[in-house]
Amino acid sequence: MRRFILIAVPYLWLLALFLVPFLIVLKISLSDIALSIPPYTPQLDLSAGWDGIKSFLSQLDFENFTFLTQDPLYWKAYVSSLQIAAISTVLTLMVGYPIAYGMAQAPDEWRPTLLLLVILPFWTSFLIRVYSWIGILSNEGFLNQFLLWTGVISTPLTILNTNTAVYIGIVYTYLPFMILPIYSALEKMDGSLLEAAEDLGCSRLSAFWLITVPLSKAGIIAGCFLVFIPALGEFVIPSLLGGSDTLMIGKVLWEEFFSNRDWPVASAVAVILLLILVIPIVLFQRNEQKQREMDQ
Amino acid sequence: MRRFSWFNATSLTLGFAFLYLPMIILIIYSFNSSRLVTVWAGFSTQWYGTLLQNESFLDAAWVTVQVAVASSTIATILGTMGAYVLVRGGRFMGRTVFSGMIYAPLVMPEVITGLSLLLLFIGIGLERGIFTIVLAHTTFSMCFVSVVVSSRLVSFDKSLEEAALDLGCTPFDAFRLVTLPIIAPAVISGWLLAFTLSLDDLVIASFTAGPSATTLPIRIFSAVRLGVSPEINALSTIMIAIVTIGVITASIITKRNSLIQQRDEQAAARTA
Question: Looking at this predicted complex, what is its ipTM?
Answer without folding.
Answer: 0.87
